[in-house]
């Protein structure tokens, strides 16, 4: 019996993603997107902008990736952004100490000595003993200018937004104020693994909403308070709506962002039966946080976090005010305040990994059942045979469709093999021009998800594709 292809096998086969510097054996923690992957990533990022930024009239910025040391001292990253590591005394391989403990049932709560004691009974895969636990900062160091001012590649995109707050508040003079950004972040992970789930260079899509803590109202709240999503707290999963979530964390902005995030992921193709928001325990939350809620999904490599949502309080602006000596106070409901912040932070590569896993389907071959709105290529066009008139009609249709869509075109190979290749890439619709098309002006459209076909007028194909994409139609039945 033929072994089923995995999502990552299919992604590599189609060059959707592949290891960086592959001809040199690759480098752990670095992956690149091929042509299909770039198109998919851009579609998801574009939909994020439409869904969150444009629809809600939020601001968007594009910040730099190199950050001066003082900014990251203010944010706490210089002191706090660390992972515990150990080294095998025999083979010299380095490990995340907390992950080693986790694999053996130990939950690390910040006590390094306790973790070190636990690992004395654990051995490396080579049989060697582990060294003492050391805390290592995860940021990539660099130098700024000829004088060598110390800087870092940013470990998150949020700090650009916090340091931009004053400029945007001076434009609007009102709260709440929401600013978003999509961009690269960098973390020097000790032992990155599991492909896209833990990378050293990755893309984040973040939104920071600044608000008056004395004013628990949000103009967009009414639109989502009845929307439902799943919450996992203390090991139990239940369905709540936005209103009910306020019993867990009393913040309407966070409830709004969670409801919207849930809908976003459903619309790009994640299976809601395999995802939930997990409310973190107090001992799991970062140093800046008043409450954290992670979006977790089930995958073939286990449960992974693809988005982190946090009520950050006034930690960020207060620290930046202290270190920059610039006042970040504003006039709130009860006088001068430093605004509080709620954050939505989505990992694009992790989200794509989850999407590949959740949309993978099997027929005679593997296929990604991407929703049409984010499919890397929307439509395929095939001449049934290599005859001049048929090829000419096929190219004419291809050029017309390319005015709006990405088109996969191929003349050679059996039509079955061309359909298989189209399906592998997740293309929702395949159009075939044949001899009969030259007489009746019709072509065959084949739907990816059920393989069924129908004859339609060639002139109506662009409109039909457009309507199908808007309705998310990928099959006939």
Can you tell me about this structure?
It contains 15 helices and 26 strands. With 477 residues, the chain is α+β, with helices and mostly antiparallel strands. The chain has three domains: 281 residues, 2-Layer Sandwich (BirA Bifunctional Protein, domain 2), CATH 3.30.930; 56 residues, no CATH class; 104 residues, Rossmann fold. The longest helix has 22 residues. The radius of gyration is 25 Å and the shape is globular. The protein starts with 6 loop residues before the first helix and ends in a 6-residue tail after the last helix.
Short description:
With about 475 residues, the protein is an alpha+beta fold. The two termini are about 30 Å apart.
Strand and helix layout:
Blueprint: H1 7-13, E1 17-19, E2 31-33, H2 35-56, E3 59-60, E4 66-68, H3 69-75, H4 77-80, E5 82-87, E6 94-96, H5 97-103, H6 112-119, E7 134-137, E8 141-144, E9 149-153, H7 158-172, E10 177-186, E11 201-211, E12 228-233, E13 236-241, H8 242-245, H9 252-268, E14 275-279, E15 291-299, E16 302-313, H10 315-324, E17 330-332, E18 335-337, E19 340-347, H11 348-359, E20 360-362, E21 366-368, E22 379-383, H12 388-401, E23 407-409, H13 415-424, E24 429-433, H14 435-440, E25 442-447, E26 453-457, H15 461-471
Parallel strand pairs: 3-10, 12-14, 22-23, 22-24
Antiparallel strand pairs: 1-2, 4-9, 5-6, 5-7, 8-9, 10-11, 11-19, 12-13, 14-15, 15-16, 16-19, 17-18, 20-21, 24-25, 25-26
Helix pairs in contact: 3-10, 5-6
């Amino acid at each position: 019996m033929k072994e089923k292809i995995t999502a990552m096998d299919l992604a590599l086969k189609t060059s959707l993603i592949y290891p960086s510097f592959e001809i040199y054996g690759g480098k752990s923690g670095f992956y690149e997107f091929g042509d299909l992957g770039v198109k998919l990533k851009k579609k998801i990022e574009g939909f994020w902008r439409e869904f969150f930024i444009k629809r809600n009239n939020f601001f968007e910025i594009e910040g730099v990736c190199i950050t001066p040391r003082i900014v990251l001292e203010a944010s706490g990253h210089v002191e706090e952004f660390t992972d515990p590591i150990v080294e095998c005394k025999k083979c010299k391989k380095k490990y995340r100490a907390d992950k080693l403990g986790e694999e053996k049932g130990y939950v690390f709560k910040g006590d390094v000595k306790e973790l070190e004691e636990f690992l004395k009974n654990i051995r490396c895969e080579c049989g060697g003993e582990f060294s003492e636990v050391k805390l290592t900062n995860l940021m990539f160091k660099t130098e700024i200018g000829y004088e060598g001012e110390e800087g870092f590649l940013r470990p998150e995109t949020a700090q650009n937004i916090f340091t931009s707050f004053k400029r945007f508040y001076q434009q609007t003079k009102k709260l709440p104020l929401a600013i978003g950004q999509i961009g690269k972040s960098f973390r020097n992970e000790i032992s990155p693994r599991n492909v896209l789930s833990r990378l050293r260079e990755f893309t984040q899509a973040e939104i920071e909403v600044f608000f008056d803590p004395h004013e628990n109202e949000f103009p967009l709240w009414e639109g989502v308070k009845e929307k439902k999503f799943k919450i996992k707290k203390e090991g139990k999963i239940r369905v709540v709506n936005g209103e009910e979530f306020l019993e867990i964390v009393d913040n309407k902005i966070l409830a709004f962002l969670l409801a919207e995030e849930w809908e976003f992921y459903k619309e790009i193709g994640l299976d809601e039966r395999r995802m939930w928001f997990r409310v973190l325990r107090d001992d799991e939350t970062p140093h800046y946080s008043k409450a954290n809620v992670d979006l977790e999904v089930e995958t073939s490599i286990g449960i992974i976090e693809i988005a982190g949502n946090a009520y950050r309080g006034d930690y960020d602006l207060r620290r930046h005010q202290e270190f920059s000596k610039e006042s970040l106070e504003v006039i709130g409901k009860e006088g001068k305040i430093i605004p509080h912040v709620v954050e939505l932070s989505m990992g694009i590569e992790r989200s794509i990994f989850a999407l590949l896993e959740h949309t993978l389907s099997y027929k005679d071959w593997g296929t990604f059942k991407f929703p049409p709105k984010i499919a890397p290529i929307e439509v395929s066009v095939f001449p049934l045979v290599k005859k001049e008139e048929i090829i000419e009609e096929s190219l004419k249709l291809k050029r017309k469709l390319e005015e709006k869509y990405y088109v996969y075109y191929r003349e050679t190979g059996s039509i079955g093999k061309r359909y298989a290749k189209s399906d592998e890439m997740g293309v929702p619709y395949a159009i075939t021009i044949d001899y009969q098309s030259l007489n009746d002006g019709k072509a065959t459209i084949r739907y990816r998800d059920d393989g069924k076909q129908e004859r339609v007028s060639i002139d109506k194909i662009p409109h039909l594709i457009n309507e199908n994409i808007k309705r998310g139609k990928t099959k006939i039945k």
